[in-house]
Amino acid sequence: MIYGIRNKNGLSMLLNSILWLLVWGGMFTDIGRLSSSFLFSNPLSFVQGIRAIFPILALYMILIWILGSRSEFPFAKNPLRFLLFYCLMGIIVSIFLSPDIVTSLYWAGLYISPLFVMWILLEKPNALASLRMIININFGVSAILALLILPQVFQGQTFDEGRAGFYNLPFNLGRMRANGVGRFALILIIFSTVRFMSKKNRARYIYLGIIFPSLYILARSQSRTALLGLAVGCILFILMKHADWRFVFAGPIAAYVIWISGIQWRAQGRFDNLVNLTGRQMTWERALDLIRQSPFLGWGFHADRLLVNSEHMHNSYLHALIQSGLIGTVAFIAAFIGIWRIIIKNNLIGRIYFFQGPDQGILMESILLLGFMTARSFFESTGAFYGVDLLIIVPSMTFIHLWTVKNIRMPAQP
After folding, report:
1. pTM of the model
2. Which of 183, 271, 186, 376 is nearest to 263 (CA)?
3. Three-state SS annotation for 129-196
4. What is the average per-residue pLDDT within 302-318?
5. Which of 156, 208, 218, 299 could form a disulfide with 303 if both were Cys (CB 3.0 to 4.6 A apart)?
6. Residue 320 located in a structural domain
7. How far, in Å, CA of 368 to CA of 198, rounded?
8. CA–CA dist 191, 132 (Å, integer)
9. Is residue 412 one of the residues assigned to a domain?
10. Distance CA 234, CA 248 (A)
């Protein structure tokens, strides 16, 4: 019987992992790749086009399971319920107000797919184990993507010359801006640093082989949001580790990377260059004009690209406003407030040093990633649309909430 239970739990974790990989599969592609002229031009294009519907396929499979099993709503006290409401509001608005209903609903489907993976995951008794697996998948995918763009870092193509440009993944798998490259670098730094400090065996030194190249990529990216996240992460990390003497060099190293990359290279020693919004303010002004026309409802998913000259909002809250109006934005903000309320109310930052068990490291990673993403949300559309940030935020939020529910009664100190 015990073997049967373990086998069943293992199968459940495998299914959740496959669903999460399907959600990741839609990254760096879009509905435009489904056109017949692109889809059938060559085998690689076919793969790129099919990838665009992977998250929708995952969503469809989960909806069938929910309807068939009559699953109960699992987000009653989970901050993810606010993100779900935000998405549902955006879906309704997309149907009635979007200038391109099909495109809007496609992006809404992508957005809701990771939330529904959490739905099916939370229905199982091994939810924490599945979350560990999904967080490890996030680490692995981030490492692979960073590795794929690493040759461009060393081949003379400097991020200083191409900050506003794109960096192509091999085999035409997609492309990303320098801000996205810096984001992946910091994600790897967070994962690797926590795991290096948490593990006791010699294998932990492998993580040093990830940390130093990631610091180099981060510095070369000159991404101000990633550098801000590095500063926030260092503060949170030191607070969680209670100023452990082993981190005496961490602060100076982070400060040096921020100084060289942000002040010397990016800002060229000038404060006005450091705080320059690089044209964001013009996009924000055009977006605000549209928001004033539909302040409570917005214009549906992907409205920034459909209505603002195909421009990206570079601000989570304006992005939420233009997609789902004030009603949806309140829910979007409530999700972040809700998870930070759990962290602060239970003093997880102060107490985590004393928690025992294998989940201490993952809990720490989740808090650090949320700190980075929260800081990033003011200058990028973090979590407001389907993207890498959303796939980092959703399992981090879920893990913190579920772990707290199951473990917060444990004593704070040994």
Report:
1. 0.92
2. 271
3. HHHHHHHHHHHHHHHHHHHHHHHHHHCCCCCCCCCCCEEECHHHCCEEEHHHHHHHHHHHHHHHHHHH
4. 88
5. 299
6. yes
7. 15
8. 13
9. no
10. 11
Q: How far apart are CA 316 and CA 68, in angstroms?
A: 35
DSSP assigned state of 375: H
State the Cα–Cα distance between residues 306 and 322, nearest whole angstrom: 11
Closest alpha carbon to 38 in 50, 30, 46:
46
In a domain, 323, yes or no: yes
Tens of pLDDT, residues 129-163? 999 999 999 999 999 998 888 888 777 544 444 45
Domains in the chain, number = 1
SS3 89: helix
Distance (Å) of CA 213 to CA 62, 154, 186, 231: 38, 11, 11, 18
In degrees, to the nearest 5, what angle opens at C-alpha 302 toward C-alphas 297 and 308?
90
Tell me which residue range forms the domain holding 328. Answer: 2-407
Length of the chain: 414
The pLDDT tens digits of the residues spanning 6-20 come to: 566 788 899 999 999
Q: Give the residue, 323 or 253, on which the prediction is more confident.
A: 323
Other C-beta atoms lying within 10 Å of the C-beta of residue 190: 28
Q: Could you tell me the CA-to-CA distances from 187 to 60, 92, 169, 197, 214 in Å, in that order?
A: 30, 34, 18, 16, 9
**Least confident stretch, 159-163, 254-258, 277-281:** 159-163
Residue 413 lies in a domain: no
How far apart (Å, rounded) are the C-alpha atoms in residues 189 and 146?
11
CB atoms closer than 10 angstroms to residue 280: 17
